[in-house]
Amino acid sequence: MDRLADTRFIPVSPAPARASAYGWLRDAVRLWRAHPFGVTGVAVVPIVFELLFQLVPGVGIVASKLLTPLATAWSFAALDARVRRGAYAPGASAGLVLSRWKPLLGLIALSFGLFCVQCAVAAWLGGPAQAVALVTGDLAAFTLGRAEIAVVFASGALLGTPLMFALPRVLLDGLGLRAALLDNLRLVRRHVHAVIAIGLVTAGAVASVVYAPWVMLIILPLGLCTGYAAYRDVDRRDAR
Fold this sequence. Notes:
The chain is globular and about 50 Å long. 75% of the residues lie in helices and 0% in strands. The protein is built from eleven helices and no strands. By secondary structure, the chain is mainly α. The mean pLDDT is 89. It has helices at 21-34, 36-54, 60-85, 90-99, 101-126, 128-136, 146-160, 166-171, 177-190, 192-208, 216-239. Helix 5 runs antiparallel to helix 7 (146-160).
């Protein structure tokens, strides 16, 4: 059997009631190692999508923040298809995303809210002009140093982590937006220590991209796999 299609990367032995960030990261590494090139290829699609949109003058940054979450949802659906059925099924994954467009719009709005927070952090660090430069993609006017840019990036990652279960609940479990957010809140409260730890790790990893952009090739696939492993783990715990 294909190792990636073998769902035993999620532990089946008795587990404590509370999940651990170490367990999620361990399972993420197992999942990535099962098929590193395929998983990496799927994981980089959203960033490629985002960078292409950002090439559009003036509105590219805002457009990318509104549309890239759809590519992220596609990556999650494709990884789930690979694990459960042994094939990424890009067409079927795209169809699944389109079929869930209404609740996904709500998640897109929340994602854009995180971008607004990043703009607020940029304004706090360098003044309102820096927020405007970030929104418009005016690199000539964007004068924040690398450390400050790292803080801007990390703020979005840190605040976005507590929403980590909402996407799979909407996309894979078919929940409506309200139900998915309420269930996400329940899961975060139950596994709050693991979620906080993952948030800190994610924020630190995203901040490091400012100094070493190539790290994205590690962060993106492991981030995707961590989110998926966490979802499968809490889903298994609920089923017990």
